[in-house]
Specification:
- With 355 residues, the chain is of the alpha/beta class.
- It has a single domain, classed as Aldolase class I (TIM Barrel).
- 37% of the residues lie in helices and 15% in strands.
- The strands form three sheets. The protein has an eight-stranded parallel β-barrel with strand order 3-4-6-9-10-11-12-13, surrounded by seven helices. A two-stranded antiparallel sheet has the order 1-2.
- Strand 3, helix 1 and strand 4 form a beta-alpha-beta unit.
- Helix 9 crosses helix 12.
């Protein structure tokens, strides 16, 4: 058995392998109501048939104007529950576990007549100027997240992921560059995320783990470094996060001093650092399509789970094909030697200019 094919348990959730399908927007929902369509049914169920351990359904939004586009999914009404439940139940029938990523696009809501954000700062000139949420509206937004999580639980999910990465609303609140508020949500950059986490935990079963996706670093000039995210993530852990899904960037146009990596495993060291600092399991993501690289990430302990996005878009059966490739590629000793010798190569150094 490869490391990638070994079971993983977090609280009451046990996965049959370490392979995760990360949330990837399909822009295929009904524009009127944000309902899943037959596209979503086929899209997710085929990856379950293909052997994926954990499927995290794409960014699903807590209100209509919280979507990136009008063709993104929503969970702002109880009427959404049956459509999600149909997809979830069928995926589970093939042995996959299923989560939903609950989110709000904030200032990145492209089709909203008036996007909202912590502060009235546009992404760039191609985006609408957002309106700053009032303090009362922020508190109401926490309730919207709670209601959406409750609906996801009623739809039958095995876990919940909150989207605190890629420049969406929770990320906007904990980013010093994007949150210029003077109220309590500006004085404490983690407060909005903490309140959303606590609200989510109130409507989740006690043994259901809560995942949070975060951008460990930002790429815009003046963006935060890993040290800032570790402080924020420690607060999120205290509030109830059980597992971090570690990505980077997405907050806005990349600056001149740092660019996101475009090489296999470019975010792995960020996941490794967060795992070590927080003492929680992590999902690594980012150009991990090569099964040998995915195996190395888990075998060396850099991350507990690996998320494969592009690879699964190209091949719905990536998980089964990866498992077969690892079984056929080498015996256990050879795989172990490869993992040990390659770890320093595939895991990039942190804080390198241009990282």
């Amino acid at each position: 058995m490869s490391h990638l094919d070994s079971p993983f348990t977090c609280k009451g959730l046990t996965l049959k392998n370490r392979i995760v399908m990360p949330p990837m927007c399909q822009y295929s929902a009904n524009a009127r109501d944000g309902m899943p369509t037959e596209w979503h049914y086929v899209h997710y169920v085929t990856r379950a048939v293909g052997g994926t351990g954990l499927i995290i359904m794409e960014m699903t939004n807590v209100e209509p104007d919280g979507r990136i586009t009008d063709h993104c999914l929503g969970l702002w009404s109880d009427e959404h529950i049956p459509a999600f439940s149909r997809v979830i139940r069928e995926c589970q029938s093939y042995g996959a576990k299923v989560g939903i990523q609950i989110a709000h696009a904030g200032r990145k809501a492209q089709d909203a007549p008036e996007p909202v954000a912590p502060s009235p700062i546009a992404v760039d000139s191609s985006y609408r100027q957002p309106r700053a949420l009032s303090t009362a509206e922020v508190k109401a937004m926490v309730q919207r997240f709670k209601d959406a999580v409750r609906r996801a639980v009623e739809a039958g999910v095995d876990t919940i992921e909150l989207h605190g990465a890629h420049g969406y609303l929770i990320h906007q609140f904990h980013s010093p560059q994007l949150n210029r508020r003077e109220d309590e949500y500006g004085r404490d950059l983690a407060l909005f995320g903490v309140e959303v986490i606590r609200a989510a935990k109130e409507v989740m079963p006690e043994e259901m783990p809560l995942i949070m996706r975060v951008s460990a670093v930002e790429y815009m000039d003046g963006g935060y470094e890993l040290e800032h995210m570790l402080k924020i993530a420690a607060r999120y852990k205290e509030a109830g996060v059980d597992l971090f899904h570690v990505s980077s960037g997405g907050e806005g146009p990349a600056g001149k001093l740092r660019q996101p990596g475009n090489y296999p495993g470019y975010q792995v060291d960020l996941a490794k650092s967060m795992k070590a600092a927080l003492g929680l399991p992590v999902i690594a993501v980012g150009l991990l399509d090569d099964p040998r690289l995915a195996e190395q990430v888990v075998a060396t302990g850099a991350a507990d789970l690996v998320a494969v996005g592009r690879g699964m878009l190209r091949d719905p059966y990536w998980a089964d094909h990866a498992r077969l490739a690892l079984l056929e590629g080498a015996d256990g000793q050879q795989a172990g030697n490869a993992a040990g010798s390659a770890a320093a190569v595939v895991v990039p150094r942190p804080y390198v200019r241009g990282y």
